Structures are given as C-alpha cells and as structure tokens.
Amino acid sequence: MDMNLDLGAAITDAFDDLTREKVDYAADPARWAAERGKMHIWSKQRDVMESVRDNRRTVVRACHSSGKSYIAATTACWWLDSHPPGEAFVLSTAPTAPQVRAILWRTIGRIHRAAGLPGRCNQTEWHMPTADGQGEELVGIGRKPSEHSEGAFQGIHARYVLVILDESQGVPKALWDATESIASNTHARVLAIGNPDVTTGPFVDACHSPTLWNEIHIGFKHTPASTGEEVPEEVADGLISQTWAEDRAIAWGEDSALYQSKVLGELPTGDVDPWRVISEEDAAKCRYIDLAYEDDPEAVRIGGIDVGGGGDRTVIVERVGSAVKRIESFSDRDPMTTVGKLVHLIEEWNLEKVRVDVIGVGWGVSGRLREVLKERGSKCKVQGVNFASRSTQPKRFANIRAEAYWNGRELSRNKAWSLASLDNDAIAELTVPRYKIADSSGKILIEAKDDIRERLGRSPDIADALLLAFYDGTGSAEAHDPRQAYAGARLDQISGTYSHFGGPQIPGLPFSIPTPIDGRLTR
Ligand SMILES: Nc1ncnc2c1ncn2[C@@H]1O[C@H](COP(=O)(O)OP(=O)(O)OP(=O)(O)O)[C@@H](O)[C@H]1O
Ligand SMILES: [Mg+2]
After folding, report:
1. At 450, which helix (H) or strand (E)?
2. CB of 202 within 8 A of CB of 176?
3. How far is the CA of 285 from the centre of ligand 2 (A)?
4. 3-state secondary structure 415-434
5. Nearest CA to ligand 1 atom 9
6. CA 130 to each of CA 10, 85, 459: distance values in angstroms, whole numbers, following the listed order
7. For a tag site, which of 1, 245, 263, 471 has the least CB within 10 Å?
8. What's domain 22-262's superfamily in CATH?
9. How many CB atoms lie within 10 A of CB 113?
10. Which of 65, 235, 263 to mutate to test the pocket of ligand 1 (most atoms within 8 A of CB)?
11. Is-contact 272 257, C-beta < 8 A?
C-alpha cells in the first residue's frame, strides 16, 4: 500500500518536473504567479513583474494600499523559484525592521507556504536545498538598513541577483548606492517600490531618471476600485477603495501633499510648497475673516502662552471664539516678573482659561501662575500642555504638537478662524513650518523647532502660543467637505449682503470679509 503511494507520488513529481522544465517561468512571471504562485495579480502588479524581467532597474511610484509590498514579495518568490537552483539570490530591505520582517517577509513566507515552494523560509531568510541535494544554502535575506555593512553586498556571488527596496522613499542613500554595485551585473535586477511622500532623495531621483530606471506609476485611478478591473474579492478587499480615496479628498484636501502621494501616487508638486502645514494661501485668506466677537457674549476667551526662558520671548495670544484678538510678547530674565505680566494680561483680557506649553521653563511658570491666580481669586484655569507628549490620536499624529498644528491647518483650510489681527511676521511663523510623514502608516510629524528657527530666523513662539489657544485637546477640527458651498470660493467672486465691516457677508457663516485694501493682500 505504502509502496503504491510512494510510486504514485514519485510519478506525479516526475511529471511535475517534466512540465515545469517545459515552462520558462522566468520569462513569464504572470504565468508563474497563476500556476506556481497560485495567486491572482492585478494588471499593474503584472507590469511590475514584467518590468523586473525586462529592466535592470524598476522604480514603482504608487499610492497607498495598492499592493506594493505584496508584489515585491511575489517578485522575490518568482525570482527564486524560476531560476536554476543556486543561481538566484534575493536581498530585500526597507527603512525599518518591522517593514522588512512583518510586511515583506511575512508575505514571502505566506506565499512560500501556500504555493509549496522549495526550501524553507523563516522571518527574514530563505534557504534552499543545494543542487547536489547534500545540504542547504541561503538564497534570500531581508535586512534593515542598520544591518547593512559595506561588505554585505559583495558577498553575494549568485548569477541572478534581485535587490528589493520596499518603502524605498525611506531607504537611506547609502543603500541605494550599494545596490548600484550589484545592478552593474547584466542579470541583476533592482526593484524599488515606494510611496512618493518625499520631494527629494534617491527615490525621487530614480523617478526622474528614465534612462536608468523604468518607472511604473500606480495611482488610485489605475487600481481595480477605479477602473473596474475584475479581481477576486479577497484581492479587492485588501486594495485601496473608492470610499477611502474620496474620504481622503475631504479630510486632507486634494491639493495636499498627503493626498497627492497617498491617493494619486504623485510626487507632490505645485506652485506652493505642499509640505507646509498651513499654506500661505489659506492663512492669507483667513486674514480677511473678521469675526464679530465683540457681539458674542458666549464666545470662549482662551489664552495660549509660550514661555521663553533665559531672556527669550514669552508670548501670550488671546483667542475669542474663533478669532485671534490680541498678541503680546515680552522678554524677562526673571520668571517671576514674567508671571506678574501674564497675570496682568489675563485679568485685563478677562480670560477664562490659559494653556501653557510646559516644556522647559514653562513648567515652573505655569505652576506659579496657577498659585498667583488662585491667591487673587481669579476664575481663570491654567492648563499645562506638553507638546512633546502623546497625541489624542496617536495613530495619526506623532505628538500633541503635530495635532495642534494640524488643527491650525484644518481651521485655515476651512476658513474657520480669523487671523485678521496677525501681522506678516506672525503669519510667517504660522506658515513656515513643514510637516512630514513619520512612517508608512501616515503618522504626521512637524519639522523640528530648530529647523524652523533656522529658516524663519527666529523661534515660532507666536505660532506655538496661537495654536495652543486653539488646541482643545479633542483632536483636530472636523474637516468640512471642501465641495460644499463657498469652501473653494474666491473672495472676489463672493456676492451677498454687506456687513458693518464693509465686506461681503456669507450666508451661514458668522463673519464678514473686509474688502481687501486696493484689492490686494496687505502683507
Ligand atoms: N494580488 C494580490 N492578491 C492577494 N492579496 C493582495 C494582492 N495584492 C495586495 N494584496 C493584499 O492587499 C493588502 C494591501 O497590499 P500591500 O500591503 O502590498 O499594499 P501596499 O501598497 O504595500 O500598502 P502600504 O501603502 O500600506 O505600504 C495586503 O493585505 C495584501 O496582502
Ligand atoms: Mg507596503
């Protein structure tokens, strides 16, 4: 009985080997995927594999959740399975260890198991039986950039080497350079896959070098959710959806760098720097919004305080409802003098609450401020906010500072706050800071204060105090649908009744727009 089974299995194996020999899977990756990989790849994924077959260097510039990592893993499996044993090697990297292990190699492992591919795979390595059947050899490795050494690539002697850079927009230049030493071999291939959420660096350079790199662009518009390309449900379920793309247009704005990279798969472009947290254009428009706060007894009266230590500027910003009203700044060497001045302004402005950035000297000042206000019977509450601490939406923002800046961005985009009392310097402080995406999950991080200081020529204390005054700790302001009436309206096209400010009154909005002086922004 056992004998018969063994014989049957041997015949099937021999038959499989025979048929496999006849099919040149190395020349037909799509067929490999269907027959050996037992998977369905969609059209752009097929394009990627065929490009790796045909070109020494392939760079894929793709939107979020378009199957980038999946196709990178599939390409690795195809490469090793379709070349003669012992002649192929795959080396993969990504910016972080989880991106190497938990994304790329987990998928490689899954495909390896599901398709019953030869050899054995662990978290970051693939071993295959040697050609003589006497042992095993290493044929694939995943390494994070810090594990890279100058010699790492030189040790690979296989004829067919494939280097995969996943999330390659975040892979250090040194590693890109090192892959060049491999790509010089005729049979070697480099596959760099990424989301274009950067504006400079080797990934961007590759996208702009058509003679060296074959570029494949995958935007939402190319994906099955948009084109209607037929894919099995389980494939469609993992990929970017119409709803997600539409929601992002509302949440981020179609002109945001985030939308351009994550939804369109486009390198952020435009006349303005798309990485400004608050665009100059949006802030400029908010300078023409003048909330009639004097008429509103219900309006909140909150102060934002950025304390400067050692003679640096201390700033207090007065917020009334949705408007910035007054801004005061002063410099004192003695923190107690600073407290005295703040108490005076808090009482004069009749603030019900102040938020103090408690990093550094702010800690002591806020504590003393609380004591003094209490002693004087003031109802004003002192709330300490640590910009460096965890955001209330930790998956979206790297810290509270990012959340507070993003709140300012939303208020600006929605024209939901008045910046009419800000001067040019204050507007510059608000609009110079840039953001970046901390990792592939899209977590938002604001440029370091030192870098801002370098470009701005001073510390953005007013911006910080102002954003504190508007940071209610409940996450960023609700994004409004930009397609709604007036959201994208040009000021000179708005018609309607005129208010006491002499500007047009927009129905439904509680503010008027003062007529621009000489029709120009007074900046
Ligand atoms: N051809 C396919 N067959 C089956 N599942 C797929 C296929 N392509 C992608 N997927 C699945 O869809 C999901 C998204 O794919 P993947 O993670 O590769 O996208 P990505 O573009 O790398 O995403 P991110 O932008 O998060 O890096 C994953 O769960 C993946 O396993
Ligand atoms: Mg990915």
Report:
1. helix 449-456
2. yes
3. 38
4. CCCECCCCCHHHHHHHHCCE
5. 67
6. 20, 7, 62
7. 1
8. P-loop containing nucleotide triphosphate hydrolases (3.40.50.300)
9. 11
10. 65
11. no
- Report the pLDDT averaged over residues 392-406: 93
Per-residue pLDDT reduced to its tens digit, 429-446: 898 899 988 766 678 999
Contacts of range 209-213, beta carbons closer than 8 Å, 24 or more positions apart: 212/57, 213/55, 213/57, 213/58, 213/59
Q: Is the CB of 68 under 6 A from ligand 1?
A: yes
Give the contacts of 157 (CB within 8 A, at least 6 positions apart): none
**Most confident residue range from 14-18, 114-118, 184-188:** 114-118
**Contact between residue 403 and residue 391 where contact means Cβ atoms under 8 Å apart:** yes
Please check whether the two domains, 22-262 and 280-481, share a CATH topology: no
96 and 20 in contact (C-beta within 8 Å)? no
Query: Which of 192, 163, 185 is CA-nearest to residue 58?
Result: 192
Does the Cβ of 238 fall within 6 Å of ligand 1? Answer: yes
User: How many other CB atoms sit within 10 Å of the CB of residue 43?
Assistant: 15
**DSSP 8-state assignment for residue 440:** T
Q: Which residue has the tokens 């690979």?
A: 156
Q: Which of 158, 168, 27, 19 is nearest to 100 (CA)?
A: 168
Is 440 close to ligand 1, i.e. is its CB under 6 Å away?
Answer: yes
Q: Is 302 left (phi over 0), alpha (psi -120 to 50) or beta?
A: beta
Query: DSSP letters along 212-244, please?
Result: T-EEEEE-GGGSHHHH-----HHHHHHS--HHH
Count Cβ neighbours within 10 Å for each residue of 117-155 and write b for 16 or more, e otherwise: bebebeebbbbbbeeeeeeeeebbbbbbbeebeeeebee
pLDDT single digits (tens) 252-306: 667 767 788 889 999 876 556 778 899 877 887 787 776 655 567 889 999 999 9
Smallest CA separation from ligand 1 atom 23, residue: 65
Pocket test for ligand 1, best of 42, 45, 70, 258 (most atoms within 8 A of CB): 70
Confidence of residue 4 (pLDDT cuts 50, 70, 90): low
Closest residue by Cα to residue 49 from 19, 23, 21, 79: 79
| The domain made up of 280-481 is a member of CATH 3.30.420.240 | yes
Q: How far is the CA of 511 from the centre of ligand 2 (A)?
A: 45
Centroid of ligand 1 to alpha carbon of 411 (angstroms): 34
Which contiguous run of DSSP H or E holds residue 369? helix 362-375
pLDDT band at 70 (very low <50, low <70, confident <90, very high): very high
Q: Domain ranges for the chain, please list them.
A: 22-262, 280-481
Instruction: Please report where in the chains the tokens 């080797």 appear, as a residue.
Output: 202
